[in-house]
């Protein structure tokens, strides 16, 4: 704990510490008195006989610097878990017991957050509860037990394993309370940075502290000052962002600030007090960001190489998610990764998630002179004149181009070569061999001269890619297979989840449920699933089909369901972000695609302990050929598929055993840690 002039709140907090139930291995308290001028030192001394307390007094340096000093002292001991809190946060008696038990129960997690409830100094005004973001303003949490986004673990109640600090991580001393105004977010920035390095966070909802909210902090001016500091912290935490800037600030943010000021004026004229406050809060946040950009200490230059990840994407799917995942892995390894692709359906959602993690994401859409035949020469000229300068402005040390299909991404490939940038490629589908027009073949021969490495998400995908492009690759090009991964902490078998999912979907607990998670597109053949239900419902009257996803075939599929009289048997969920809350409802997951690069939904279902059935096509076959957790059926053979599925539906014991094997296979071969090791090993020696 760091404190500065904390005598007003420390008596209540330290009294709560005296009531703590000690964990089995004991505990100790380190308090760093950060240059205060009140009676904090005397107050701490009065508790020395009642607590396992060590006090350190230092010159004023700010909260983050004080905590870093406390970490150095704690590392001298042998404790595995370092718990952080504030001098105005009073713990419940079982606080340490719950954090200790949580850490023991989840050894694969390194950061643990606990609940923070409000200890109001006076009853808050109604408008505060209604309008003010209580989380960022007063550090009040409302998070369920389980894996958690690291940015939701806050400093008044967090625990971190010793190994994180032994790896060199510390709090950023540019953030947090210090002399005068300051940028907020030291613990949030720390947790996000640690997560980027591969350490996962878990929220322990039962470990509670009560954060004292002083009466003066409920005034509008105080709340707006915190919005300003929140904006300053956001600027310090900002990752690489190639968007156009003016005086170091993104132009869109300056425009938004102007709009918010205009909105304040309009709300005042309309005498809309709520709108006035909300506009002012947003304006103060933006003002803090701009202030930090103009007058604050600059962010340190990014370590490692600058890696630009790009593609020719059409919609958010497995390849795009893998690209974002790789950007995070590289950032966690100390590189300045960025995603730059054409705008596709789902781009804004994906980009927002990356930006929240401090990773740049922007639109890069060069004219397509490989992917489109018409106007190819004109498009190539346009790309050289306009897109090549844009690519150079990214200042990338290495360009990663993802191929979803033959030639899709090749224009970006050639442009990177044209800009004299080294390249790596990833292959995300098993596309058929192709022969190229001499004009394109000549460009391929040029472009592949800059390619240092190629990996594919499956053996089949690599073999198909090499059939088309192998002749263009240099003999020394690195080749490997790096399958997709599944977060086994997010996707896991759970009877409670199964019942909850069925309840949300309106399914009976004893219904037979088959399902598919994926785009409703021709590649996935969802119409074959509807035909399958029609063929099996006579034998299995309680059979239900769940189609989780959206796509161009949705309206056509709903008509097919109506025509076959299956309206009560087929459920369309639309897009589902948290598919881990849907998959446990299934008895079987089916993927009857005509082709796949890998099939992420297949391994997600297997991680949930759900047996899987897939067509014997490249990508899916790479997962299931030797699997005991699923089986393959011939593509286009409806009778064989119906027979195989019926056999599984009629044998719950066999399904249960397959589900156990499926889960074990995911834990042994497809975890994020395995993916991270493979990706970083691929890049080793390829980055400048």
Verbal overview:
This protein has 688 residues and is α/β, with parallel strands linked by helices. The protein has four domains: 2-217, Spore Coat Polysaccharide Biosynthesis Protein SpsA, Chain A; 229-295; 306-485 and 674-683, 3-Layer(aba) Sandwich (Rossmann fold); 495-670, Rossmann fold, CATH 3.40.50. It is built from 25 helices and 24 strands. Helix 14 (376-393) crosses helix 15 (410-418). The protein is globular, with a radius of gyration of 28 Å. GO terms for molecular function: glycosyltransferase activity.
- Tally the beta strands: 24
Low-confidence stretches: none
Tell me the name of the CATH class of the largest domain: Alpha Beta
Structure annotation, total helices: 25
Mean pLDDT level: 89
> How would you classify the helix and strand content by structural class?
alpha/beta
For the CA atoms, what is the radius of gyration?
28 Å
CATH second-level architecture of the largest domain: Alpha-Beta Complex
Helix percentage: 40-55%
Which strands sit side by side, in order, in the main sheet?
14-13-12-15-16-17-18
Question: How large a portion of the residues is in β-strands, by DSSP E?
Answer: 15-25%
CATH topology of the largest domain: Spore Coat Polysaccharide Biosynthesis Protein SpsA, Chain A
Span between termini: 41 Å
CATH homologous superfamily of the largest domain - what is it?
Answer: Spore Coat Polysaccharide Biosynthesis Protein SpsA, Chain A
Shape estimate: globular
How does the major sheet shape up? Answer: 7 strands, parallel
Number of domains: 4
């Amino acid at each position: 704990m760091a404190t500065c002039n904390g005598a007003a709140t420390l008596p209540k907090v330290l009294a709560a510490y005296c009531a703590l139930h000690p964990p089995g291995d004991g505990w100790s308290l380190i308090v760093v008195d950060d240059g205060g001028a009140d009676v904090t030192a005397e107050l701490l001394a009065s508790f020395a006989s009642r607590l396992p307390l060590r006090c350190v007094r230092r010159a004023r340096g700010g909260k983050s610097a004080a905590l870093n000093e406390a970490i150095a002292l704690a590392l001298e001991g042998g404790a595995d878990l370092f718990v952080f809190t504030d001098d105005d946060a009073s713990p419940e008696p079982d606080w340490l017991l719950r954090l200790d038990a949580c850490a023991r129960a989840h050894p694969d997690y390194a950061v643990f957050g606990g609940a923070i409830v409000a200890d109001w100094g006076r009853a808050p005004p109604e408008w505060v509860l209604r309008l003010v973001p209580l989380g960022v303003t007063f550090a009040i949490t409302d998070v369920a037990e389980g894996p958690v986004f690291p940015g939701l673990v806050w400093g008044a109640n967090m625990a971190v394993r010793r190994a994180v600090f032994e790896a060199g991580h510390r709090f950023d001393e540019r953030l947090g309370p210090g002399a005068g105004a300051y940028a907020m977010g030291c613990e949030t920035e720390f947790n996000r940075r640690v997560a980027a390095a591969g350490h996962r966070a878990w929220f322990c909802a039962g470990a509670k502290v009560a954060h004292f909210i002083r009466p003066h902090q409920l005034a509008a001016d105080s709340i707006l000052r915190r919005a300003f500091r929140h904006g300053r912290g956001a600027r310090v935490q900002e990752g690489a962002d190639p968007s156009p800037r003016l005086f170091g600030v993104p132009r869109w943010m300056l425009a938004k600030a102007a709009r918010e000021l205009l909105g304040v004026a309009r709300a005042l004229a309309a005498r809309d007090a709520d709108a006035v406050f909300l506009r002012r809060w947003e304006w103060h946040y933006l003002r803090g960001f701009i202030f930090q950009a103009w007058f604050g200490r600059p962010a340190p230059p990014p370590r490692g190489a600058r890696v630009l990840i790009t593609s020719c994407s059409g919609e958010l799917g497995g390849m795009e998610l893998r690209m974002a995942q790789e950007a995070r892995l590289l950032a966690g390894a100390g590189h300045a990764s960025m995603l730059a692709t054409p705008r596709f359906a789902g781009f804004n959602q994906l980009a927002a998630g990356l930006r929240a993690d401090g990773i740049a994401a922007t639109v890069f859409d060069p004219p397509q002179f490989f992917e489109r035949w018409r106007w190819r020469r004109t498009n190539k000229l346009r790309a050289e004149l306009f897109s090549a300068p844009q690519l150079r402005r990214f200042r990338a040390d290495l360009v990663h181009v993802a191929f979803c299909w033959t030639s899709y991404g090749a224009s970006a490939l050639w442009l990177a070569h044209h800009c004299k940038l080294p390249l790596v490629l990833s292959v995300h589908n098993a596309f058929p061999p192709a022969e190229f027009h001499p004009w394109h073949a000549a460009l391929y021969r040029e472009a592949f001269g800059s390619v240092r490495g190629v990996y594919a998400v499956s053996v089949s995908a690599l073999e198909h890619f090499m059939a088309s492009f192998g002749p263009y690759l240099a003999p020394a090009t690195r080749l490997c297979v790096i399958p997709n991964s599944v977060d086994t902490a997010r996707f896991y078998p759970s009877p409670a989840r199964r019942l909850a999912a069925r309840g949300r979907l309106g399914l009976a607990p004893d219904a037979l449920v088959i399902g598919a998670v994926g785009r409703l597109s021709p590649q996935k053949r969802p119409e074959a699933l509807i035909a399958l239900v029609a063929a099996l419902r006579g034998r299995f009257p309680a059979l239900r089909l769940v189609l989780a996803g959206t796509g161009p075939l949705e309206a056509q599929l709903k008509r097919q369901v109506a025509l076959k009289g299956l309206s009560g048997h087929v459920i369309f969920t639309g897009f589902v972000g948290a598919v881990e809350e849907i998959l446990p409802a299934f008895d079987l997951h089916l993927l009857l695609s005509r082709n796949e690069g890998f099939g992420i939904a297949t391994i997600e279902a297997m991680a949930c302990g759900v047996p899987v059935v897939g067509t014997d096509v490249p990508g899916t076959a790479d997962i299931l050929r030797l699997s005991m957790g699923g089986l393959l059926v011939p593509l286009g053979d409806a009778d064989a598929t119906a027979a195989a599925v019926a056999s599984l539906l009629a044998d719950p014991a066999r399904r249960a055993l397959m589900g156990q094997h499926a889960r074990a296979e995911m834990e042994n071969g497809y975890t994020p840690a395995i993916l991270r090791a493979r990706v970083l090993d691929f890049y080793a020696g390829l980055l400048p």
